[in-house]
Amino acid sequence: MFRSGAFNWNQERPVRDVPVLVLAALACAFALQLFWHGQRPTLNAEVEPLSSPLAANAYRLATLGESLATAKILNLWLQAYDNQPGISLSFKQLDYARIAQWLDLILELDPKGRYPLLAAARIYGSVNDAVRKRYMMDYVYRKFLENPGQRWPWLAYAVIVAKHELKDLPLALKYASALSDQATGKNVPYWARDMKIIVLEDLGEVEAAKILVGGLLESGEITDPSELKFLEERIHRLETRSSSSRQGVE
Length: 250
Fold this sequence. Notes:
The protein has 12 helices and 2 strands, in the order αααββααααααααα. By secondary structure, it is an all-alpha fold. It has a two-stranded antiparallel ribbon. β1 (83-84) and β2 form a beta hairpin.
């Protein structure tokens, strides 16, 4: 049985008491280890290109019909793809056409999922590259047309990106017009539908904006007090601007 104080750490044998052969063996082992590490080839991190996805049915079969779970797993996998072993990629190094294919697949597996449009607009669309940014905003636009009632928030975001980041007012008008014409559900707020008015005003299309606002007011379809107030203030502003323009010409 162990007794307290039976073992004294101060009684360890000094190194000089270790046999010379043991020390020599340890030294040789250490030298061999250093030599082995020195002979190993240097591992160079290489970018693994993003491959094309399989058909959606292949993933359904592989997961016994668990489409929603598969979509969530693919969401995480795709989002982490830019962090590969030994290397971290910038979005500029990614193939955006392939990314769009994977986002399409995820949407097919989970049509009501929010991630693909969120990723396109806010993650891949945030890259400091006008071509790639435009590519992702156009992707959002195409997917919005498939389901305007659910996907309108991402196209509203695309309007802002086109206007303020891409500095492309005609493109912003294209997106805003789609919102105004297609996103007509009760769940779509007035500020999203009325973005077209603001873009028209920015483009200098004051008369077109006035016609649009006047038509909305006269239609009787607008009943929300806040929206009515916004439109009345906007029409007053447009009329003032139009009058100032005519006086300037005279």
